[in-house]
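Reply to dn_fold:

You asked what the input looked like. This is it:
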Amino acid sequence: MKRLFFIIYLFICPFLSMGQDSNLVSVSLPGRTVSAYGVARPSITTRESGVIVIQIKVDQYGRVKKATVDKAKTTIMDRAICNSAIKAALSTGFNKSSSAPKLQKGIITYRFGELAYKDNFIKRNG
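and this is what came back:
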């Protein structure tokens, strides 16, 4: 039954959510938390399925100072979507930490399309 629901979910969801909610985001920045505003999302979305992995460098004040696409781990190479993801990463904030390195390395991963729906389904339904 779960399998049937999952197949229906994958078929219907692309038609229900075409905007900001059509992607999922994960962040890896050890010892830091995302600010109360949350992780910024790309303003451009796609129906293409895949991931854009952004390598970030965050200062001690929690500001993302540098963001670049990790081409080895990114599966969507559309320049406009990648640039939108970089812009979103640069506008994401983290908590302040005087004990953090001057520029701490981290990763923001944006998942799009079926991959996002599949990951979301598994998180919700185990």
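The two ends are 14 Å apart (CA to CA).
Hope that clears it up.
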